[in-house]
Amino acid sequence: MNLIEITNSFPDELSAIKHFERLRWGKKPKCAYCGSENIGVRNADHRFNCKNCNKTFSVTTNTLLHDTRLPLKTWLISFAIVTDAKKGVSAKQLERNIGVHYETAWAMGHKIRSLMAIENKEIELSGILEMDETYVGGKPRKFNDGTTSDVRKAYKIPQLDERIHDLKEAGMKLKRGRGNPAKSDINPKRGRGTSKIPVVGIVSRNGDVIAEVMKKTTYTDLKKLVNKYVDKNDSVMITDEYTGYNRFSEIIEHISIDHQKLYSYKGVNTNSIESFWAIVKRGIIGQYHQVSLKYLPNYVSEFVFKYNNRNQDDMFETLVKNSMKTVSTN
Ligand SMILES: [Zn+2]
Questions:
Q1: pLDDT class for 186, splitting at 50, 70, 90?
Q2: Burial class of residue 236 (count of CB atoms within 10 Å of its CB; 0-12, 13-18, 19+)
Q3: Which domains does the chain have, with CATH numbers?
Q4: How remote is the CA of residue 107 from the centroid of ligand 1, in Å?
Q5: Is the pTM of the predicted complex or chain greater than 0.85?
Q6: Contact 171, 159 (CB under 8 A)
């Protein structure tokens, strides 16, 4: 849904609330605590009283939006803005568009990304697959006294300017900037072997992608990702000649392509995953100037979600549905 459709469909807060209620309960509200259908009429504040357990609840009680104080209409508008933007929406933009404080907009962005991540967990890939890694620098959080977080110390993350420079130079031109000689001859320190954060991805040609931030890219780490997301009996995996993939034929039918010699041989290439990396990097450079290591997985989730839903119109409804998933009441 675009913004005009949203404002037409949900002219006021009640219409927005009812939309969430339909997705959570169907026609009739159920108690968010005991599940009873024996509940009173809607109160003025849109809460309901349960006649069974005597508690009051609203549509967001014990859902992933449990602690929100924002109007639900604001959430619907934000879902529409975020799903509509291919490259992502920065907290600054969201702040301007919906008129909330920066901190609120920032938290909403991450909540929305966490709703997107729910979908990503259910992916299973098969067919002709391409697997590859890319490297993204992270900007660490700086504290008031000028020191940086432990994350920065642990990973020695380059400064933002360096990182953008690197990504612009390395990321946008996909034939460079990685650890294998064909890609890194201009600057051998770039890519594998540097202190940037690896993101590893697997894409099914004409299908879905998954990607995760990983600390290391050894065979053991890469194998875990395959085991988690790939139907190994029904797939062929194409990679480059990075040593982490050397033993892949032990777990899956595996073709590697030597990028020192050529990039594609009779359709054997890693072009699809490279295209996905280009989207990720453009988004991170263009929209999210300050991505810290801590939140990098959330941004990656957003790009995975959007890539996998690129031909569908129901991203918006998926977010509404996911936001109404119930969480434990403990
Ligand atoms: Zn109850």
A1: very low
A2: middle
A3: 3-121+314-320 (no CATH), 125-289 (3.30.420)
A4: 30
A5: no
A6: no
